[in-house]
Specification:
Layout: H1 3-15, E1 24-28, E2 43-47, H2 48-61, H3 66-76, H4 83-95
Antiparallel strand pairs: 1-2
Helix pairs in contact: 1-2, 2-3, 3-4
């Protein structure tokens, strides 16, 4: 699966719509740990679910990048996730430490 393609599709969909009428979060399109800035051109408004998925897709795209994997791990927090997701992100976090 082309995770980067799916990440791009998610971001582009969000960029091309009006702000959703629900809880949203700002997301760095190019993550700060990869040289992204706080400029408005590098920010997109995502729903909480989209934001969670965006971080998972980034971690799947860059599984050896400590900053990306750490951000996905933080994003998962204490939310309900499957054991496979939990195991996957924990293993990646340890591998990239």
């Amino acid at each position: 699966m082309d995770y980067h393609k799916h990440y791009s599709l998610l971001v582009n969909k969000a960029l091309g719509r009006e702000k959703p009428n629900c809880y949203t979060e700002k997301h760095h399109i190019i993550p700060k740990c990869m040289g992204g800035t706080d400029d408005s051109s590098n920010l997109v408004v995502l729903t909480a679910r989209e934001h969670f998925i965006a971080h998972q897709l980034l971690a799947m795209t860059y599984p050896a990048h400590h900053g990306i994997v750490h951000a996905a791990k933080i994003m998962m927090g204490n939310s309900r996730y499957t054991s496979r997701e939990f195991e996957w992100i924990r293993v990646l976090a340890v591998k990239t430490s």
